[in-house]
Design goal:
By secondary structure, the chain is mainly α. The protein has seven helices and no strands.
């Protein structure tokens, strides 16, 4: 899958309607085969802007320390994300999105 890069100035101030080229059916089929997931359904690209870490943690009923330990994040990072002093890196944001969708599966995978 190609990486699409745009400068912030190309997106426009406050513009949240990013347009990305849609993949072909062949690309989607290739991803299904690579991932071993025939039930995969492609809907559209979504840009992960932010995950509310505090809301996610509270929904899971965990303390900051329990959340950090379960998903192997530094406790200080969890605290700073929740207080808005720092934002998770893009890869971490993707992991947080996966945790929000399948928290038990991710916890089991990391155990």
């Amino acid at each position: 899958m190609p990486i699409i890069r745009k400068r912030l100035s190309e997106l426009g101030a406050g513009d949240r309607n990013y347009s990305f080229p849609k993949p072909t059916e062949a690309q989607i089929q290739k991803w299904k085969e690579e991932d071993g997931d025939e039930n995969f359904e492609f809907s559209d690209f979504r840009l992960v802007r932010n995950v509310n870490v505090r809301a996610l943690r509270e929904r899971l009923g965990l303390t900051q320390q329990e959340f950090a330990r379960r998903y192997r994040f530094p406790l200080r990072s969890v605290q700073e994300w929740e207080q808005g002093r720092k934002r998770p890196a893009a890869g971490t944001m993707t992991l947080l999105l996966a945790i929000s969708r399948k928290p038990k599966a991710l916890a089991d995978a990391l155990a």
